Amino acid sequence: MPVGSCSCGAVYAFDATGHNLGSAFIEALVFGCNMDWDLAWGLLPEEDYLEKVVENYDYEKNLIVSGGFYEGRRISGALYFIRLHRDIREVTNQGVRKTLEQAVPASPASSAGANRGKALTKKEVEDLIRSYQIDPLLSMAGQDKRIITDLLRLLYSGDELVRLRAAEMLGKVADVIAQKEPEAVSNLLQRLFTAVSDTGASSWGAMDAIGEIIGHSAEIFAGYIPALYQFLENEALRAKVLRAVGRIAGARPELIRKSAFRFTPFLHHPEPETRGYAAWLLGHLGIAAAKEDLTRLKNEDQKIGLYENGTIVIKTVGQLASEALEKL
Question: Model pTM?
Answer without folding.
Answer: 0.70
